[in-house]
Structures are given as C-alpha cells and as structure tokens.
Amino acid sequence: MEIDAWVWWLIGAAGLGIPLVLTAMPEFGMFAVGALAASVTAALGVGVTGQVLVFTAVSVALIAVVRPIANRHRSQRPEFASGIDALRGRTAVVLERVDGTGGRIKLAGEIWSARTLDADASFEPGRQVDVVEIDGATAVVM
Length: 142
What we know:
Elements: H1 5-23, H2 26-43, H3 48-75, E1 91-96, E2 104-107, E3 110-116, E4 128-135, E5 138-141
Parallel strand pairs: 3-5
Antiparallel strand pairs: 1-2, 1-4, 2-3, 4-5
C-alpha cells in the first residue's frame, strides 16, 4: 500500500504541531502551516519540487511577517499600576478643609491626610479633588 504525498505532508504538519505545543515556539506552527499548504499542493497534483517550494515559501513568508508582529505584541505588556502608583490621577472627596498645610480626604475608600499642590489653594469639605501624587502618607491634590 502506497501513501500519497499529501498524506505525508499532513503527517509532517502534525509532527511540527507537537513541538509547537511542547515548547510554545510559534515557528513550529508556521512550519506546520507551510506543510499544510504543501499538502494541498500535493493533492492538486503538483510535483515534489513544487511542493517543497510551496512549503518553503509559505513558511518563510509566515516567519517574515508574523514573527515580528508577535514579538512586538510580546514586548508591549500592559502596565498594571499597583500601590501608590494606582492612586495617582484618582478622584477623592475632601472630608476636612485641605490647604497647603494639610487636611483630610477620602481616597479609594480610605481616609488620607492631604495637602494642596498649590500652597495658596484650599478646598472645602464635599469638594472633589484630583490626586496628583502621593508624598509618603500624604496625598497631594489639586
């Protein structure tokens, strides 16, 4: 019993899919897609040289196009702010008059000491303010 060339290409594609799963290297997946394209080419009756050329062209094209895009997405991890960095830019409610020397605000469900960014400014209770930065245990607001 003789196995057709397109079946061998499918076996090759499956064989390339195994290291893709085990190593998480996307290049193996790109080679597997190239093998699938060569399988289709073989099923259409193209000779061995054409099949190898299709495998090579599809694999190289995928590596040349997809890999740089994947690397760019991998390097652009979303920033996750935590701790005091997560409090910058948030809105707070004034509980006790806040001026350049001090006061109290409610920020993220907690009561914080606060002072104004501009020493001449002041905010009365009930007013919403924006947190500019955290200086120690004091929120600087405006």
